[in-house]
Amino acid sequence: xxxxxxxxxxxxxxxFDDEESRKNIxxxxxxxxxxxxxxxxxxxxxxxxxxxxxxxxxSVEHTGIKIQLFGTTEISNGQKDDFLTLSHDLAPPSVxxxxxxxxxxxxxxxxxxxxxxxxxxxxxxxxxxxxxRKNSDITKIKKFWVHLYSNxxxxxxxxxxxxxxxxxxxxxxxxxxxxxxLKDVIVGRIYFLLTRLKIKHMEISLITRETxxxxxxxxxxxxxxxxxxxxxxxxxxxxxxxxxxxxxYDLTPTSKTNQxxxxxxxxxxxxxxxxxxxxxQSEIILFRPST
Amino acid sequence: MTETTISPEEQNxxxxxxxKVIQRETNAMRKCLESKGRLMDALKHASNFLTELRASQxxxxxxxxxxxxxxxxxxxxxxxxxxxxPHHHLSDLYELVQYAGNIVPRLYLMITVGTxxxxxxxxxxxxxxxDMIEMCRGVQYPIRGLFLRYYLSQRTKTILPQENxxxxxxxxxxxxxxxxxxxxxxxxxxxxxxxxxxxxxxELKILVGSNLVRISQLENYDFEYYKTDILPTIIxxxxxxxxxxxxxxxxxxxxxxFPDEFHLKTLDELLQCxxxxxxxxxxxxxxxNLIDRLTNFxxxxxxxxxxxxxxxxxxxxxxxxxxxxELINEFQVYELNLLLESITKLSxxxxxxxxxxxxxxxxxxxxxxxxxxxxxQKENFSSLLLMPVDNLSKPSKILKLQNFSELLNLQxxxxxxxxxxxxxxxxxxxxxRISNLQTLNGLFSLFxxxxxxxxxxxxxxYANEQEKIGKLIHLISNKKDVTIHSKLLTQAxxxxxxxxxxxxxxxxxxxTLKLIRFNPESQIVNSLFKFMSRLINELFRIGLIELSxxxxxxxxQLSDQIKLExxxxxxxxxxxxxxxxxxxxxxxxxxxxxxxxGVLQQTRNFTRENYDTLITKTALYGSxxxxxxxxxxxxxxxxxxxxxxxxxxxGEEEGISEFYRDGKRVLECLQRALRVADACMDSVVSxxxxxxxxxxxxxxxxHGNENITVKYINGLIELIQTNVDSLAEENNTNLELPKKHxxxxxxxxxxxxxxxxxxxxISR
Lengths: 291, 764
Hints:
The structure holds two protein chains of two kinds.
Chain A: H1 2-5, E1 10-16, E2 24-28, E3 34-41, E4 46-54, E5 60-62, E6 64-75, E7 80-91, E8 94-96, E9 100-106, E10 116-117, E11 121-132, E12 138-147, E13 159-165, E14 169-175, E15 179-181, E16 185-195, E17 199-212, E18 219-231, E19 239-245, E20 255-256, E21 260-272, E22 277-287
Parallel strand pairs in A: 3-12, 15-22
Antiparallel strand pairs in A: 1-4, 2-3, 4-9, 5-8, 6-7, 6-11, 10-11, 11-12, 13-14, 14-16, 16-19, 17-18, 17-21, 20-21, 21-22
Chain B: H1 8-34, H2 39-51, H3 60-83, H4 90-96, H5 103-118, H6 125-135, H7 142-156, H8 166-185, H9 194-217, H10 223-241, H11 244-257, H12 260-265, H13 267-275, H14 283-301, H15 307-310, H16 314-328, H17 333-350, H18 355-371, H19 382-391, H20 404-410, H21 413-428, H22 437-446, H23 448-451, H24 462-474, H25 482-496, H26 501-518, H27 525-541, H28 545-561, H29 565-582, H30 586-602, H31 608-623, H32 628-638, H33 663-678, H34 683-702, H35 710-728, H36 736-755
Helix pairs in contact in B: 1-2, 1-3, 2-3, 2-5, 3-5, 4-5, 5-6, 5-7, 6-8, 7-8, 8-9, 8-10, 9-11, 10-11, 11-14, 13-16, 14-17, 16-17, 17-18, 17-19, 18-20, 19-21, 21-24, 22-25, 24-26, 25-26, 26-27, 26-28, 27-28, 28-29, 28-30, 30-31, 30-32, 31-32, 32-33, 32-34, 33-34, 34-35, 34-36
């Protein structure tokens, strides 16, 4: 806040190493603009430089300079929590009268969560440099983005369900897997054993549900992608194929933390001619594959 | 469907709105395609116009209209993709278009991209084909699904691989799915609109059938594959769908599009299939189509060698089937008739000489005709009966069919007669002779119904019909053996005596007469004359006086010509008897006398005595006629009986041959005629008769009868002139004709004066 009222006598600039070669990610911000962040993964060392530049001939007294790395969650009700705090001192108390560049390095940082920007919760990572002074500290932060990669081994497990409404509808459906990478394709089929329903169409919905906190103060949000897979009413014995490419959508891997979790569901929805909806929802695990 | 039915106006409005959207979005798409790097936007517009194909309230025709416009628009897109494919990776694009949220636009785009993709070298053609056809399952709404699959079919038409069977399986799969959708259309919506839907389906059938046409056009396969794979699969689908319209239509398509050789060799399969169809299907129609197709095949190929097709045992196979088929169905006669007609035609074409096949069919029809009720409209076997008549090498060959006439006679009388008349016409138009008893019996029993027709229903064509039998009788002939010919005539008479002999006996009579004329030396001539006499007597007995008289006279003439005096005399005697006893009408009497005179004058073989008896009697009859003019004319005609002239056909020549002549008797006749003429009360009539007598006189004068003198002729001319003059004052218009006649006669005399000097002496 102080910097709003006083011109800071020094400029701070944080640079990550290998910024030229590091992968960038584009994230939509609230006001619709797109921000670019450097991308890190779990266990990766975060190192870089801080340049402290003193403005024309001034000298600045400080009680020390430190660099910190934060992982924070920020809930829409205002609650904030740092789940990760790392700190290094860059310089002991002294007087600065010329520009100095410091190297910093957070070795093998364990990043528990992915960076996330949901409706009710945001997971942020950033490094923060602080020049400590008697009256007001001078700080500068730089955000970065974290992706967690995984390669689950039980990919083969398919989802098979046999559901129905007595004397009205009986279907069997199958998704080839229950766990999908974000660029995967959901493949499946629906087999109609009995159908007396006048079906108008059938779609699958891909639902991402974010849950924050615990009952009774839980906050929920979900995001749905709808995809029509059948037009009209099939007859008994008909098999309808399902294929949904995931790569084109902006999806969030399934994740679970103490504070919040993100779950993904696939829901088969049948809409009859009177507009009634019949659906069956199954959870699927989405992950970010490492390659 | 819960969709409320909407009015045609609203439907049309929907259509117009959709067309506008499609046109607008197509234009937008075209602009994007023309600018660089805007393919994604172009696809977006394409997706927009494709959304219009999600319509569900249009009639099939209206939907088709939309489809056509969309097809053209997608063509633009496909052409662009083809031209630009190195820039746009088609496999990526194929995936990309699948993000479309709605299935109908998505699949149209997929097919559009996929089919362009297939044309690129090294494209995974088989996988693309499989994927597209599999994904199309997502559209289960009948009309939309049908058109989508039709689009798939149209797009792939020219690019399916030629070298393997995948393409065929691809089309077959599409066919099966389309058929299912098409059949399902029938079961949508309220049952009261059943007929409307049937009509709509009728309009859509070609979409389904086009697949079979496609298969038939491919050259990827051989007969073996057709028999073991293609046909069974199609047939299974046809049977399974149980739908009447589909079964009728699709079987017909199969029959029409695949080669005839295939049908010949897969006959069992086809017949088995027909057996398993929905009972409501018009089996016969299909069956008949099949048979006709096979029949025409032989016609087209002009296969004359039976051996080529004998192996198939075609007739037996089909025939067994018909019998079996008949057991499980209750046929109307007309249906049976059509069925039997087609198999008959097939047999006639394939096995033209196997009469036993036809007899088998006819026998079957006979049994049915006895069981079922026939009528005059359509419940009869008329076209079956006409089939051999029209298709045997000669109509008369129908006599080789043992069961033909039995079946004919089982038809309702009116039908029987109509058919008999047609058959009779065909026979008469053909050049043939009835030369043996078998043929005669066959034909005459065939036409029993015409022969025995007594015209109780006052048919206006009756005489015409009977005349045809007369013509038939004239076909009886055996040039080699008189006895056989005569037996044929006797047998014909036996057939005819139950009918109206007035029309038919004269034909037998004259046929006999002709037989005698050509065989005058034959030993049976006498009995033939007696036969003729019997014919005449039978006619006489039923009151045909005039006819009997004429026939007697004809008999008399012929018997004289072949020098059978006794017989001839007898015939003349019969003429006189009839004349005396039965002819009472004066006009007829006169005519009869004139006829007798004509014949008698030409006889050559009577003894003088017999001749004198006959001519004297004739002249006497003439002189006894009631009316004076008749008397007069009979008498002057009778004069010729005493003045024979040459008959060049007999080799006679005036001046060389001897003739029976008695000039004195001639003159007597003329004088007598003149007296009778003079006795007429009407002077005009007298004058006319005088002139006629004058003409007779001139005739004899020319022919050298010296009893007719110039003086006599002059006297006659004067007599006539005097009478004419005396009447001229009366200004009688009736006199005009006799006057002209007189003048012409006088003119004639004048012209004769120049060539015959004897005429110089005639006064005028």
